[in-house]
Amino acid sequence: MARVLLAGLKHEVNTFVPGVTTLEDFRRRYLLEGAAVFGPARGSGQEIDGIVQVAKAEGIELVPAVAAYGGASRPVLDAAYAYIRERTLAKVEEERGRIDGVILALHGAMATETSEDPEGELIAAIRDVVGPDLPIVVSFDMHCHLTDRKVRAADAIVGYHTHPHVDFVDTGRRAMRIMARRLCGEIRPVVVQRKIRMVTSAEHHNTSRPPMGDLFDRIAAMQREPGILGATVFATQPWMDVADLGWSAVVVADGDRALAQARADELARMAWDRRERFLVRKTPITEAVRQALASAGRPFVFADSADAVTGGAYGDGNVLLRALLETGFTDSALLTLTDPEAAAASHSAGVGGEVTIAVGGKLAPRFYSPVTVTGRVQMLTDGKYVCELPPTPIDVGRAAVLQVGGISLALSERPAPTIDQEIYRHLGLEPRTAKIVQVKSPGGFRAVYGPFAAGIFEIDTPGPTDSELTRLPFRKIRRPLWPFDPELSAPW
């Protein structure tokens, strides 16, 4: 029986928010070793789940090392990354000579205090231990920041084929199938990338429609060609200020590097030719509110994507709240806000208590300032629940609903993702019946909200995940890079 070492590390950085991500932040979600790694892999809907399914079907023994999940947030503390890295490498060293391959489920857009490519460094370190001939297969999020170091150290790379991301399990299956075929000598994978000098926000990365859908239709056709083992496009996490930022087209072929490069270049050119269609045009908040109130339908989803928690923002943006208060909004609205002080005050007041407090704008003061509200506490919880996409344990700390007129303000000590409805439902709120529902997401929410929303507005707000990337304080990116250099004519 072949033996394959399994490890996972998930973190997506945003370099425009202050602070660091600690080891405790990982533990709050999960940081597992040994057999405990399989805990989130049984029916979890994550990549490891798919890896386990294929390994079992192929009679391959998986040797679990470490699985760590840190969400999307600030750069990782160097010491926290070092701990995860060393625990992973210790298991690789322990199993050296007794394993036939290594499979890794990574995000791809992690950064630490001092490293712009810690995942590439980890893959390279594993390669140094196992030698040049042992296969290493890696799966990444669609918003992976792919680097040459990652590509050089891996035999095969696969990525999500959906946005909103719903193919976690299938991505794990695709990665493990390549590993299984490599172990039995059926294929000899080679992987190439073509880096593209462009970066775009995520609003138009939806793979079910153009322009991104065009690329993934071509990818599906490519993968049916003889000799092509896999293909994808990595649209990168755009809110990380690193030198080598940019999209990547990736193709894995069976021993034919020239074929892989030709197909990667084709995908890269397709992406480049569609670059203008990835630009986002937002709706002013007052216009979005006017249109929502003029309609009998509900709910209207207001995508506050510039404060996207799943893009690494704190979620303390209060621009929509301020606008609704200023316009005298009286219908029902569900909003989220990260504010430890306001959450604590609500818990101190208790259910039914009245609170007057300045909320929001305290964690990312570059973009927001506090607004004072008076409201009544409707619900209090410990903030522990399970996300739907993907199914992941979440702990947002003490949480509360503060009712401010028609606005149900979901307060939490720590950022709450809103790509699904779970933070609202955890607090006893039902998005389907509200007039306005705020989601702090640039597109991932559409898988859940799209089927029942009366309408979706991408509202124009500032923040650390602003879709107007040129408004953000980039310092390290290598120029020229589109759209910072709109006259750029060559994609690489």
Describe, in plain words, how this protein is organized in 3D.
The protein has 492 residues and is an alpha/beta fold. The chain has two domains: 3-278, no CATH class; 285-466, no CATH class. Helix content is 28%, strand content 24%. The protein contains 13 helices and 19 strands. It is globular, with a radius of gyration of 23 Å. The two termini are 44 Å apart.
Brief descriptors of the model:
492 residues, 2 domains, six-stranded mixed beta sheet, 24% strand, 13 helices, eight-stranded mixed beta sheet, 19 strands
Low-confidence segments, ≥5 residues, pLDDT <50?
none
Spatially, the strands of the biggest sheet line up as 12-13-16-17-11-18-10-19
Give the number of DSSP strands.
19
Q: Give a short account of the largest sheet.
A: 8 strands, mixed
Which percent band covers the strand fraction?
15-25%
Average residue pLDDT:
96
- Rg, Cα atoms, Å: 23 Å
Structural class: alpha/beta
Provide the domain count: 2
Task: Report helical residue fraction.
Answer: 25-40%
Shape: globular
The helix tally amounts to: 13
Distance between the termini: 44 Å
Brief overview:
By secondary structure, the protein is of the alpha/beta class.
SSE layout and pairings?
Layout: E1 3-13, H1 23-29, E2 30-33, H2 47-58, E3 61-73, H3 78-95, E4 101-106, H4 118-130, E5 136-140, H5 148-153, E6 156-159, H6 168-183, E7 189-195, H7 212-222, E8 228-234, E9 248-254, H8 257-273, H9 285-293, E10 300-303, H10 319-326, E11 333-338, H11 340-349, E12 354-359, E13 371-381, E14 384-386, E15 393-395, E16 399-404, E17 407-412, H12 422-426, E18 436-439, H13 446-449, E19 455-458
Parallel strand pairs: 1-3, 1-4, 4-5, 5-6, 10-18, 10-19, 11-17, 11-18
Antiparallel strand pairs: 2-3, 7-9, 8-9, 12-13, 13-16, 14-15, 16-17
